[in-house]
Amino acid sequence: MQLILGIESSCDETGVALVRLPADGSLPQLLAHGLHSQIAMHRAYGGVVPELASRDHIRRVLPLTRQVLEDAGAALPDIDVVAFTRGPGLAGALLVGAGAACALGAALGKPVLGIHHLEGHLLSPFLSSDAPQFPFVALLVSGGHTQLMRVDGVGQYAILGETIDDAAGEAFDKSAKLLGLPYPGGPELARLAQDGNPQAFKLPRPLLHSGDLDFSFAGLKTAVLTQAKKLGGDLAAHKADLAASTQAAIVEVLVKKTLKAVQQTGMQRLVVAGGVGANRLLREQLNQTCIQRGIRVHYPELHLCTDNGAMIAMAAAMRLQSGQQQADCSYAFDVKPR
Ligand code: KG4
Ligand code: ZN
């Protein structure tokens, strides 16, 4: 049995978690996790301010670590491996997590392991009670990435398609900003959309019939801007309709392309991960489509869809368990922002 501490600090959430890696090869278990969101701090600026993010991570990371250990009934010397997010993300923010992880590792004489943020998202559904089994198709939809992947095991990832411009989360966030909604726009737009008519505005479904599995969302944002300008002073009265129409366009493209990927690969399982995976309409439509076709869909638990430390600790545990990677004691903390 090993205890793995995971630290996430790639953007605007400080996440710390402790995962237990059983010696018998069974799935790692989450013992405790803590999260501090910086949303309130960045909201005044309409988006993440990198310098403020780094400073706040520094303030939060050690108290959160202490809290997580206490919640798990563990102490610092019990930690066997310290994992951290190596990238992608904001350079300064990543350096805080990497620095803290390496300092802890060096002080405790324990090895450290850098984890790819997206692998954390990808493997986060293994933390849920309804954990998937390999192989599966994965739809990874976050603020920075939109990818369809074939996943045959830990570290065995083949990209089937991805966005050629904006990510799905970016499309949500930028459209929300155009509608005057506060940061972070995705969940705000989704909330407003509940009161709107998704058919009120005709918005483009970019690359829907492109024949491949790539996405493009940049044109959608421009179409939303054009509609908003056209409405002028009437925008306020039609805001919910425009939000609902935007959400419907993004979700339709995601669902149709995902289904195509599942059909092309002949897979019976689908995993949806990343912040946009929390979107209710996306979940409803994917569930409906997949039930009809006998495809099993797995999601992370709702509170683990967006950034957190549990997914980093879990990805580290699964990598170590699979023999894909080893933690080391070089403490040369490099990060990979891109
Ligand atoms: O995975 P994540 O926390 O961070 C990145 O790695 O990017 O994803 C954040 C993204 C943001 O774009 C946010 O607006 C979006 O996920 N998001 C949502 C919802 N919750 C979060 N988008 C649509 N509907 C939601 N309910
Ligand atoms: Zn993320």
From TrEMBL:
Protein name: tRNA N6-adenosine threonylcarbamoyltransferase
PANTHER family from the UniProt entry: TRNA N6-ADENOSINE THREONYLCARBAMOYLTRANSFERASE (PTHR11735), TRNA N6-ADENOSINE THREONYLCARBAMOYLTRANSFERASE, MITOCHONDRIAL (PTHR11735:SF6)
Domain of life: Bacteria
Keyword tRNA processing among UniProt keywords: yes
Domain Gcp-like per the UniProt entry, residue ranges: 30-313
Pfam short name (any one): TsaD
Positions annotated to bind substrate: 140-144, 173, 186, 279
Catalyzed reactions per annotation: L-threonylcarbamoyladenylate + adenosine(37) in tRNA = N(6)-L-threonylcarbamoyladenosine(37) in tRNA + AMP + H(+)
Keywords: Acyltransferase, Cytoplasm, Iron, Metal-binding, Transferase, tRNA processing
One MF term in the entry's GO annotations: tRNA N(6)-L-threonylcarbamoyladenine synthase activity
EC number: 2.3.1.234
Gene transcribed to yield this protein: tsaD
NCBIfam families: gcp_kae1 (TIGR00329), T6A_TsaD_YgjD (TIGR03723)
Main location: cytoplasm
Family that this chain belongs to: Belongs to the KAE1 / TsaD family.
Manner of cofactor binding, per the entry note: Binds 1 Fe(2+) ion per subunit.
Lineage: Bacteria, Pseudomonadati, Pseudomonadota, Betaproteobacteria, Burkholderiales
Residues where Fe cation binds: 117, 121, 307
Cofactor: Fe(2+)
Location of the protein in the cell: Cytoplasm
